[in-house]
Amino acid sequence: MGVQTFKNIYYTLWRWQDTVRGWPRDIKHFIQRGRRGYADCDTWGINHYLADIVPKMIRDMEKYHHGCPMDFFDEPTSSCDRWSKELIKYAEGWEAIGKVLNDEHITHTPLPKGETRKIGGEHGITVDFDSKFDEEQMNAWIKQFEDIGPSFFKNFLGLWD
Q: Which domain holds residue 14?
């Protein structure tokens, strides 16, 4: 048996064991969400949690809503199309800030084979990739999220169905 085969078996077993070891924690978090609507782990990064769950909820609401706030009726026979468009805009804004939180504006490119570089100064780490930070894209996503703010809060009481 070669070294690579041994590593593959070892790490497969290690990952499986690590997964099983996490089951009690996962069950605890499942019960907490059922009882109080959130788990301890959700409060460790409320921004990430909300950026993940809010757009999913809004898209679900847009898909299945049966009405809309009174401000969105153009005429008595309106089908709430403007409300649907507004909900999509809200979801896209929350998804945009989620991309910032998940560092999707940073791309990593592998260095040529055998090359490495040190990051973090004297006590840093050695990596085999180069990173590119797209500040313009990050700022565009932040602006997209900020732009939904006034309308989102104005219509906050209409986020029910």
A: 1-37
Please give the average pLDDT of every successive group of 10 residues along the chain, which has 161 residues: 70 76 90 94 93 96 85 69 91 97 92 85 84 94 96 90 71
Quote the crossing angle between the two packed helices 81-101 and 135-154, to the nearest 10°: 140
Say whether both 49 and 83 belong to one domain. yes
Give the list of residues 6+ apart from residue 39 with CB closer than 8 angstroms, or none.
28, 29, 30, 32, 33
Q: Are residues 62 and 92 in the same domain?
A: yes
Do 50 and 64 fall within a single domain? yes
C-alpha 7/C-alpha 107 separation (Å) is: 29
Strands 117-119 and 125-127, sheet pairing: antiparallel
d(CA 101, CA 122): 28
Domain co-membership, 73 together with 149: yes
0.90 surpassed by pTM: no
